[in-house]
Design brief:
Layout lengths: L20 H8 L3 E5 L2 E4 L1 H20 L3 E2 L5 E2 L1 H7 L1 H4 L5 E4 L5 E4 L4 H11 L8 E10 L14 E11 L2 H21 L5 E4 L9 E8 L5 E5 L6 E3 L22 E4 L6 H5 L11 E8 L2 E8 L6 H8 L4 E3 L2 H8 L15 E5 L8 E4 L5 E6 L9 E3 L18 E15 L1 H6 L2 E3 L5 E3 L1 E8 H11 L1 E2 L2 E2 L10 E5 L7 H15 L4 E3 L6 H11 L3 E5 L1 H5 L2 E6 L5 E4 L3 H11 L3
Parallel strand pairs: 3-7, 15-17, 17-20, 27-28, 27-29
Antiparallel strand pairs: 1-2, 4-6, 5-6, 7-8, 8-24, 9-10, 10-21, 11-12, 11-21, 13-19, 14-15, 14-16, 18-19, 21-24, 22-23, 25-26, 29-30, 30-31
Helix pairs in contact: 1-11, 2-6, 2-11
The chain binds one RNA strand through α13 and α14.
Length: about 575
RNA sequence: CGGAGCGUAGCUCAGCCUGGCUAGAGCGCCAGCUUUGGGAGCUGGAUGUCGCAGGUUCGAAUCCUGUCGCUCCGACCA
C-alpha cells in the first residue's frame, strides 16, 4: 500500500480533549476520529489494528473449541424481563422504539439471546458441552464515557457463552477460556494478569478478570509478590490480626465523653483524645431496600461495597443522607455509633468480633463513648468481611505485605451457574432422563479496549510502539526521494513489490515530504520495522533497517527483502 | 445526577476581566521559489454562524439569561 493512497491523518499537536496518552496517540497517529463523546470512527489504520486483535481472538477461540455465531444487536425487552436484568441493568440499557412504539434494546451483552437460542435448540446432554462466541458491537449507556475507546457508548466486544451438563464439565469449559485468554493477551503483546474478581450484577460465584497494569486504569488490583495472589480490590482479602483490647485506654467501663467539633476518625486520633484508628469503630449508615442499616468497621478501615452486596444479599443500597441519618439516630455523621441500637439492623466487619475497649460515636453531636465492648454494648445482627483490603496488609495466603496497582480490565471470565438457563428455560435431559438447567459460563473481551491498552502499555515520547502481531502494517518503507527516476525510489518500489509477494503487510511512504516528516510520522504511527532508503547509504550499496525503538541496522540493498523477512520471523510471537 | 472548566479557522490557542476600527497567532491547507537524512525557509493566498437562541446596548466574541455540546473530578460501571 502506498501512503498517498490510504488515509493517515496524523496530528502534530495533542488534541485538547484527549487526556491519557493512548487516547492521544490513537488520534495523533490517525487511527480513530471522534464523532461525538463516546463514539469513534475507525480510520483505515485503526481498523487494520482492530482486525488484527479480532483475528487473534478468533483464532484462539476456535482453537479452544468455541463456535462463532453472530447475534442481533437489537433485542426484545421481554427476555431481559425474564432474566431480571431489565431492572437490574436498566441504567446501562439503550432503549429505542419502532414505528409501532414498541420498545427494543440495543444489546449491552448477550446472555439472554444466546440462552434463548440454546433453550430452543439443545434438549439433551448429548448436545453438550457447547460454547458459542461472537465478535460484535455492544451498546452501553455509560454514565460517563471517557478515555477514547476505553469506556465508550459503543464498542467491539468478543463474548462467549458455555453450556455444560455438570458443574465439573463447566469448570473444564471455564478453564479452557481462561487458558485461551492468557494466550490471546500474550499474542497481542500485552502483559495482562488474571486476577480474582467480583461477579457483580452478572451473578454467579466464580470469576477472573484479565488486567493490564497501567496508571490510567480504572481498576485497582491487590497482589502479592510472595505467592502470586492477585485480586480486584473489590474482591481482595487480606489477613489482618483480630482487634483485641490490648493497649486500650479504658477496658470494661462504658464512658461517655465530650468531643466538641470532632467529626472524623482522624480528629479523634489527635490530642487531646489520641484514640488510634484501630481502637475506633466507624459507623456508616446505608439505606438498604429503603431502610437504614448500620455498617460497622474498624476506624482505620474502608468499606468495600462489593463485599457489602455479598453480605447483605442485595445490591439495592446507597449511603444514607445526613437527614436520613439524623432521623434514624438523632445525631449527625461524625458522632454516630451502634451502642444501644436495637431497632435497626447492625452489620459489622469480622475484625470487630469480640473487640473491647473501643471508642465510637455516642449518637449525640459532640460526644463519643469509650470502653465499648462489641457484643456487650453493641448487638450485631450480621457479620461479614466488609473491609477494603489495603496496601501493606498481610497476604491471606502467605503473609507477605500486599501491594496495590491500577490496571485496565481487558477481559473477564465468569462461571455463571444456572441463573440464565433457569430464567430462560435452557433445560436439557440428563442421562437419567431428568430435566436440568444447563450450567453456563460467560467470557468477555473488550476488543477495542484491548487495542487501546496495547498502546497505553507500548509507546514512547515519539509515538506508538506496535507489537508485531497487532501492528496495522508490519513494515514501512521510507524512501527519501520519490522522484520516479531516482534509484532510491525505484529500489523502494521494487522492495515494496517483493515484500507484498512474500505476504508482508507493508506500507510505502511515497509522499513527497522531507525526511524529518516521514521519520516522525513513522515513529508516531509505530510501525515495528522501518526500511529507510536514502542516497547516502545507497551509494554504499546499503539500506537501513530500523526496528521501532531499536538500533539502526545497515544491510546490503540486495539482501533487504531477505533481511526484512528474517527480522519478521525472528520477532514473531 | 452533583461539582469544576471549556466552546473563537482543519488542529493548538490568544482576544473576553475593562463592549467600539477590517477578529488574530502558530501549525496545517493552496500557489510559487528555494531547500532536501529527524516535523525547513521566503513570498503570496484561501479559510470563521466567535456553539446555538434570546436579552441589555447606539454598538456584543466580550455583559446577562437560557440552551446544546465537550472535558475533568465524584457518584456509577457486566
Amino acid at each position: 500500500m502506498n501512503w498517498t493512497q490510504t488515509f493517515i491523518p496524523t496530528l502534530k499537536e495533542v488534541p485538547a480533549d484527549a487526556e491519557i496518552v493512548s487516547h492521544q496517540l490513537l488520534l495523533r497517529a490517525g487511527l480513530i476520529r471522534k464523532l461525538t463523546g463516546g463514539l469513534y470512527t475507525f480510520l483505515p489504520l485503526g481498523l487494520r489494528a482492530l482486525r488484527k486483535v479480532e483475528r487473534i481472538v478468533r483464532e484462539e477461540m476456535d482453537r479452544a473449541g468455541a463456535l462463532e455465531v453472530l447475534m442481533p444487536a437489537l433485542q426484545p425487552p421481554e427476555i431481559w424481563q425474564k432474566s431480571g436484568r431489565y431492572e437490574s441493568a436498566r441504567d446501562v440499557l439503550f432503549k429505542v422504539r419502532d414505528r409501532a412504539k414498541k420498545e427494543w434494546l440495543l444489546g449491552p451483552t448477550h446472555e439472554e439471546v444466546i440462552t434463548s437460542l440454546v433453550a430452543g435448540e439443545v434438549n439433551s446432554y448429548r448436545q453438550l458441552p457447547r460454547n458459542f462466541y461472537q465478535i460484535q458491537t455492544k451498546f452501553r449507556d455509560e454514565i460517563r464515557p471517557r478515555f477514547g475507546l476505553m469506556r465508550a457508548k459503543e464498542f467491539v466486544m468478543k463474548d462467549a457463552y458455555s453450556f455444560d451438563a455438570t458443574d465439573e464439565a463447566a469448570q473444564v469449559s471455564y478453564q479452557k477460556m481462561y487458558d485461551a485468554y492468557v494466550r490471546i493477551f500474550q499474542r497481542c503483546g500485552l502483559k495482562a494478569m488474571p486476577v480474582e474478581a467480583d461477579t457483580g450484577v452478572m451473578g454467579g460465584k466464580f470469576s477472573h478478570e484479565f488486567m493490564v497494569p497501567a496508571e490510567t486504569g480504572e481498576n485497582e488490583v491487590v497482589y502479592c509478590e510472595g505467592c502470586g495472589y492477585a485480586a480486584n480490590v473489590e474482591k481482595a482479602v487480606s489477613c489482618v490480626p483480630a482487634t483485641t483490647g490490648e493497649g486500650a485506654a479504658s477496658i470494661g467501663e462504658l464512658e461517655r465523653f465530650a468531643t466538641p467539633g470532632v467529626s472524623t476518625i482522624e480528629a479523634l486520633t489527635r490530642s487531646p483524645y489520641e484514640v488510634a484508628g484501630d481502637r475506633q469503630i466507624k459507623t456508616l449508615v446505608y439505606m438498604v431496600a429503603g431502610k437504614p442499616v448500620l455498617i460497622l468497621l474498624r476506624g482505620d478501615h474502608q468499606l468495600n461495597e462489593a463485599k457489602l452486596t455479598g453480605v447483605l444479599g442485595v445490591a439495592d443500597f446507597r449511603p444514607a443522607t445526613a437527614e436520613e441519618i439524623f432521623d434514624a439516630l438523632g445525631a449527625h455523621p461524625g458522632s454516630l455509633g451502634a451502642v444501644g441500637v436495637k431497632e435497626l439492623n447492625v452489620c459489622a466487619d469480622e475484625l470487630l468480633r469480640g473487640a473491647v475497649g473501643m471508642t465510637t460515636g455516642a449518637n449525640e453531636d459532640g460526644f463519643h463513648l469509650r470502653g465499648v465492648e462489641v457484643g456487650r454494648d453493641i448487638e450485631v445482627k450480621q457479620w461479614g468481611d466488609l473491609r477494603l483490603a489495603a496496601v501493606g496488609e498481610p497476604c491471606n495466603h502467605c503473609g507477605k505485605p500486599l501491594k496495590v496497582r491500577r490496571a485496565i480490565e481487558v477481559g473477564h471470565v465468569f462461571k455463571l451457574g444456572s441463573k440464565y438457563s433457569e430464567a430462560l428455560g435452557a433445560l436439557f435431559l440428563d442421562e437419567s432422563g431428568k430435566q436440568q438447567p444447563a450450567i453456563m459460563g460467560c467470557y468477555g473481551i473488550g476488543v477495542t479496549r484491548t487495542l487501546q491498552a496495547v498502546i497505553e502499555q507500548s509507546h514512547d515520547k515519539d509515538g506508538i510502539i506496535w507489537p508485531l502481531p497487532v501492528a496495522p502494517y508490519q513494515v514501512c518503507i521510507t524512501p527519501l526521494s520519490v522522484s520516479p527516476e531516482s534509484a532510491v525510489f525505484q529500489l523502494a518500489q521494487a522492495i515494496h513489490k517483493a515484500l507484498i509477494e512474500e505476504g508482508v503487510e507493508v506500507l510505502l511512504d511515497d509522499r513527497d515530504e522531507r525526511p524529518g516528516v516521514k521519520f516522525k510520522d513513522a515513529d508516531l504511527v509505530g510501525f515495528p520495522l522501518r526500511l529507510g532508503i536514502g542516497e547516502k547509504s545507497l551509494a554504499r550499496g546499503e539500506v537501513e533497517l530500523k526496528p521501532r525503538g531499536g538500533q539502526l541496522i545497515a544491510v546490503k540493498s540486495e539482501n533487504a527483502v531477505t533481511k526484512v523477512l528474517e527480522w519478521l520471523e525472528g520477532n514473531r510471537v
